[in-house]
Amino acid sequence: MRVVVAALIEREGCLLVGQRRRDGPFPLKWEFPGGKVRPGETPAEALARELREELGVSAAVGAELYRTRHRYAELSDELLLIFFAARIEGEPQCLAFEQVCWVERSRLDRLDFLAADRELVMRLAAGDWALS
After folding, report:
1. Residue 40: left (phi > 0), alpha (psi -120 to 50), or beta?
2. Which domains are seen in the chain, by residue range?
3. Which pTM was predicted?
4. I want to staple 77 with a disulfide (CB 3.0 to 4.6 A). Which of 2, 11, 57, 69 is the partner?
5. pLDDT per residue over 51-103, tens digit each?
């Protein structure tokens, strides 16, 4: 099983999302910033590293908010995806995405998210829980 972490970063009622590059896996799908946990890393350490690499920001990783498992036909391993609340310092840069943007929670479900994120996206868009 592959462990993947993602950040729910909220600012003024909007969440930060990134669109995958058109020349990479799952082209132009939307996701929350994050990535794979490397051997020897805790999930929180991996998320802080990924946010530095993808967005050029330092982050305070908070509580785990949600976790799910998903198997993509295109990947050999099942994913364990763990979502954390996070706060960032500075303005995010688009270092690893086609684009990044702040999206109102109620509009998240209008974007074409990765399949593993969709249940959480629907719950967030419906206002099921507060992140802070």
Report:
1. left
2. 2-125 (3.90.79.10)
3. 0.94
4. 2
5. 999 999 999 999 999 999 999 988 889 999 999 999 999 999 999 999 999 99
